[in-house]
Amino acid sequence: MAKLPRQRPETLGGYVVHGVPFPVETDAESLAFLKRMAPIQIEQEYKITYLHSYGQDSPWFAAAANRRLLATHSAASGYTYATPRAHDMASGEETEWVDITERTACIHAFTVCHFGSEEFLPETPFVLALIEFEGVNTLFLTRLMGVDPHAASLDWIGMRVEPRFMRNSKLKPTDVYFTPVEE
Amino acid sequence: MRPVYALSGGVSKFAKARPDKTFQLIVKEAYDYALADIGLDFPTFGRLVDGSVASYFSDHFLRQLKAGAMVQDYLGLCPKPSHRVEGGGATGGLCFQEAWKSIASGHMDVCLAYGWEMMSHVETWKGNEFIALASDVSWDYPVGGFYTGYYAIMVTRHMKEYGTTVEQMAHVSVKNHINAYYNPYAQKRDRFTIEDVRSSPMVAWPLTRLDICVMSDGAAVTILASEEGLARLEAAGAKIPRPLVCVTGIGRGTDAMRMADRPHLDYETFMREYATVQEKSSDETGRYYKRLWDHGTRYPGVHSFRAGRTAGNMAYKHAEINDPLNELDFIELHDAYTSSEVQTYEDLGLCRYGEGGPFAASGKAFMPGIDYGLKLPAKPVCAVNPSGGLIACGHPVGATGLMQAVFAIWQLQGTLAKHFGDGALQVENARRGAIHSHAGTGTYVTVSILEREG
User: pLDDT by residue (tens digit) across A153-183?
Assistant: First the structure.
């Protein structure tokens, strides 16, 4: 059984303090004492909004918003990329878009995140999985729904899954996610 | 290329938070130690050194760009040449190798490599977010960017492919924490059992909190020199211990940023391009791998680090090592996760792919003479992370690879007892060791071989 937490979570934030302890006189003895001061720590906020471009990968997001899952295919190498690449890794040649929405898919590897980066902490526990597709040479990282995050099992690897799409696209790779195929 | 000597090093105390000093002063702690250890003072070494390389990973943690310049001036090294290297978790290993290049090429005779990271200026989960930005921000980060999650994904595949168990991985945690018990520089000095590791809070299945390294504030430096540089320092009064420590092998490798893009290569390509010299020379190993491939294994997939295998093979060729397990006396490797130590055993050819789990629990990578509270079937052969590694020492990213170099120098000088105040972790008669630095989900990996002369 997992051990119970013994520490309360720490957060920043608190009261504004006016008046900072400092010697009244700046004689040599008082100044020498300053080397024994504890450090002052302040909060600095930093926020920024980026105008992020998906560039050549943009059609993938347009497709997901329209409930289609795209990949790219290289005629030169015969390689198909589940996470699209505009150029083939081996030949350097341009790839073409292909639709893999209906391809047979299964779980290649996965984890259940019980903690996460700050942005995703509110969503824990969540399941991350790499998906493999029939006739596709690379994998696709996604969220997996429809499995119990508290009952993780290696048996999930190899499980047949299918894509589902968010009705309200956010133009993010999470517009598509996967669930086990119901028998 | 000419011989390069690793003469001295210093490591600051690694701690969860060091608000008592800014980063320049924490680097200076390590720098002052390295200078004092060879009996030179600040102005003398500052006059004799030709230049430096700075190592730090993230501009986000301090919200300070060009921080390298601030260390360079604080150490009194302006206007001498310097540059910053950045390569994720491998930043320190890359820095060490850049300093090596400066000397080996004849460009410098004395070069200082310094590195640090101050990770405490943001909260742990924000820190995880910064680290996760070292994954593709179009495709990977937005899905739930979290490095422990990425490593957990990789190890579930390793477990499925090879039958690796969480208990085998927990052996790494027990070993590294107990080793660190004797290392005063380590952030975590605890005795844990396999059960402790498994019952600590689950972070990303199957990795628990004790399978994972922690965030740290800390710094480390090393001093590298040519024969001419050595003579220059000694003429100024430096006391350099003999036998000297020489850098005899350098290797690096890379792989695709997105785990999803890693290839799944066939048996013939693996044997031709990635098998170690030892693996290629054994018909039995050839048959062993054929059986794995017949069973469905492909290389490297997400379960193995092609960059690590490439770096290892390159460094071994350079240092003329054919049987790493028996020709290396110790390895300080990048155990950000217990799982990655297990995967790295295989990449570095200490065992074959698929055998990392049993190898972890065999006892071969443990220190002799230390009670781990475990029943280990085999005797120690090559100590892996005798210092306690990242899991117990901490992982202030830009300092980590240089910390490994410092511990390796002390092992090969036979001076570990002096520096640690305890000789328990001194590898007896250490003649040759490797340091291994690893970035991303295996995107950049460096391996450097250090040897005692004579």
Answer: 999 999 999 999 999 999 999 999 999 999 7
Q: Which chain B residue is nearest to residue A144, measuring alpha carbons? A: B143
Domain presence at residue B86: yes
In a domain, B69, yes or no: yes
Domains in chain B, number: 1
CA distance A182 to chain B (A): 23
Containing structural domain, residue B79: 4-122+215-245
Residue A80's domain spans which residues? 56-180
Strand order in the sheet with B432-438: B82-85, B51-55, B110-118, B217-225, B4-11, B245-254, B444-452, B432-438, B330-332, B383-384
What CATH number does the domain containing B27 carry? 3.40.47.10
Domains contained in chain A, number = 1
A139 falls within a domain: yes
pTM: predicted TM-score of the whole model, two decimal places: 0.96
pLDDT band, residue B196 (cuts 50/70/90): very high
* Residue to test with chain B: of A1, A118, A156, most B Cβ within 10 A: A118
Residue A1: band (very low, low, confident or very high) from pLDDT cuts 50, 70, 90: low
A111 touches chain B (CB under 8 A): yes
Contact list in B for residue A115 (CB cut-off 8 A) is 125, 128, 146, 148, 203-204
Per-residue tokens: B156:
């579930």
Does A113 lie at the interface with B, CB-CB under 8 angstroms? Answer: yes
Residue A101 located in a structural domain:
yes
A39 touches chain B (CB under 8 A): yes
In a domain, A20, yes or no: no
Cβ–Cβ contact A100 with B under 8 A: no
Q: Is residue B230 part of a domain?
A: yes
Which chain A positions have a beta carbon within 8 Å of B20's beta carbon?
Answer: 38-39
Assess A154–B contact: CB distance below 8 Å, yes or no.
yes
Residue in chain B nearest A170 by alpha carbon? B142
d(CA B200, nearest CA chain A) in Å: 6
In this structure, is residue A25 part of a structural domain?
no
The reply to whether residue B259 touches residue A130, judged by beta carbons under 8 angstroms, is yes
* B81, part of any domain: yes
pLDDT tens-digit series, residues B370-419: 999 999 999 999 999 999 999 999 999 999 999 999 999 999 999 999 99
